[in-house]
Amino acid sequence: MDKVPLVVGNWKMELSHKSAVEVFSAMKKMMTIKEYPVEIVVCPSYPSLAVIAAESKASGIAIGAQNIYHEERGAHTGKVSVVQIREFVTWCIIGHSEVRAAEGDSDLLITQKAKLLLQHGITPIVCIGESEADHAAGNTISIISLQIDVLLSSLDRVSLLKTPIAYEPLWAIGTGVLPDSNEVCEVVLLIRKKIAEKFDTELAERVRILYGGSVTAENVQQYISGPCADGVLVGGASVHPRDFLAIAEQVGHAYAR
Ligand code: PGA
């Protein structure tokens, strides 16, 4: 199968511009994992995108943004549009639970953002996940189904093929609390089943589905050793070059086996 696993680093607001440039240049120097088929993306904050994008040439690390506004242009104070980031990034995270919570992004708005990004040649990484309360109440499958249904009703086959989906249970993000790998697998299989029902099994197998939430170099193995996730979305550990690349190396290695 020509599917390459994907490892995405979400730097959130963790670093000053100076530190972001330093972290990136350290990461670039440490890149020794070219022998494994793994795609690596880091997503700095907006102010660092231009400089890091220039630094990233021939590094083997692609650059993404952490979000965009859903309008292409207009009077939207404080927002950043796809047109403003497209010369710097080839990826963009959308639907992250922190953005959903702060800005109220709905699943429909997130699909609108996905389409906008794809129109401008940027690959969206769509985050989905259930809250702690929903998890405790046993609603994980129904919440994920709703989120996926909205995405599948708006994206066509070609768009979906390009769009990785990251399953991030909200209660696992930044908490150190890890979901059981079987539970993650169950959600990944549900997403594939839904894609197969709407489209076909070939597409269902080819779409990359990631796991995200408290991933470290020490715990990543359990999520990538089975037939489930095609990579990971990493927050906290991604600003530490050695840790982040150790995660990427394990993902590439697991996939190459
Ligand atoms: P975390 O963040 O790895 O720090 O839990 C993951 C994310 O927010 O994507």
From TrEMBL:
- Biological process GO annotation list? gluconeogenesis; glyceraldehyde-3-phosphate biosynthetic process; glycerol catabolic process; glycolytic process
> Which terms does the record give in the GO molecular function aspect?
triose-phosphate isomerase activity
Q: Which GO terms describe its cellular component?
A: cytosol
Keyword Hydrolase included in the entry's annotation: no
Q: Does the keyword Hydrolase apply?
A: no
Span of the secretion signal? none
Q: Which pathway does this polypeptide act in?
A: Carbohydrate degradation; glycolysis; D-glyceraldehyde 3-phosphate from glycerone phosphate: step 1/1; Carbohydrate biosynthesis; gluconeogenesis
Primary residence: cytoplasm
Catalyzed reactions: D-glyceraldehyde 3-phosphate = dihydroxyacetone phosphate
Stored SUPFAM superfamilies:
Triosephosphate isomerase (TIM) (SSF51351)
Family assignment from sequence similarity: Belongs to the triosephosphate isomerase family.
Entry-linked NCBIfam families:
tim
Q: This chain belongs to which protein, by name?
A: Triosephosphate isomerase
Native organism: Candidatus Andersenbacteria bacterium RIFCSPHIGHO2_12_FULL_45_11
Phylogenetic placement of the source organism: Bacteria, Candidatus Anderseniibacteriota
